[in-house]
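Input/output pair, single chain:
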Amino acid sequence: MLTCRQVSELVSHAQDRQLGWLERWRMQVHLRVCEGCRNFQSQIGFIRRAIHRHPLLQDKDREPPSGR
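Output:
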């Protein structure tokens, strides 16, 4: 079974690339038994969604608001 450190790395990698079937399977097995890693996965997802919803990141061609 993977360690929590290995799972946290896979959770992070999964945000940027598609994991292989063995990586996904091993991660899912660990997540079924580890509440801490499930919480970490949930938090990473929340942060990613919040970043993608940020108004300045919605339209990358827009200029940032001025300080006035």
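The helical segments are 4-14, 21-33, 35-53, 55-58. Residues 21 and 35 are 22 Å apart (CA to CA).
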